[in-house]
Amino acid sequence: MVNAIVLLTVQRDRIPGVAQELVEVDGVSEVYSVAGRHDLVAILRAKDDDQLADIVTGHLLKVKGIQKSETLIAFRVYSKHDLDRLFSIGMD
C-alpha cells in the first residue's frame, strides 16, 4: 500500500465544493479543511505507485478550484492503530 498526503491551495469560494469532490474520488480516504498556508489536506491510499499517480494526476488535479498542490509520499506510518490492516480491507 502507498500512502500520500496532498496539500492543496484552493480558490476560497470553492473550498467546500472541492473537498466534497475530492472525497468522492476512489483512493481519497479523507479530506481535511485546515488553517494555515494550505486550505485542504487530502489523505490518499493506493495499492501501488501507478494507482497513486492516476489518483493525483488523473483525478485530483482536474478538480476546478485547485490553485496549487504539493504531494508528500509516506515512507512509513507511525500510529497507535494498525492502519495497513484497517485500510487494506477489500484491496486484494
Short description:
With 92 residues, the protein is of the alpha+beta class. The chain is 27% helix and 34% strand.
Structure, described:
The chain is an alpha+beta fold and 92 residues long. It has a single domain, classed as Alpha-Beta Plaits (2-Layer Sandwich). The chain has helices at residues 15-23, 49-59, 83-87, and strands spanning 2-10, 28-33, 40-46, 66-74. A four-stranded antiparallel beta sheet has the order 2-3-1-4. Strand 2 (28-33) and strand 3 (40-46) form a beta hairpin. The longest helix has 11 residues, at 49-59. The protein is globular and about 35 Å long.
Features:
92 residues; alpha+beta; Alpha-Beta Plaits; four-stranded antiparallel sheet; 3 helices; 4 strands; 27% helix; 34% strand; globular
How much of the sequence is in beta strands? 25-35%
User: If strands are numbered along the chain, what order do they take across the biggest sheet?
Assistant: 2-3-1-4
Helix content: 25-40%
CATH superfamily: Lrp/AsnC effector binding domain/regulation of amino acid metabolism (RAM) domain
In whole angstroms, the N-to-C terminal distance is 11 Å
CATH topology annotation: Alpha-Beta Plaits
Shape: globular
Known CATH architecture: 2-Layer Sandwich
CATH classification class: Alpha Beta
Structural class: alpha+beta
Number of strands: 4
The run of helices and strands is: EHEEHEH
C-alpha Rg (nearest Å): 13 Å
**How many helices?**
3
The largest sheet is:
4 strands, antiparallel
Could you say how many structural domains there are in total?
A: 1
Overall mean confidence score, pLDDT:
90
Q: Identify low-pLDDT runs.
A: none
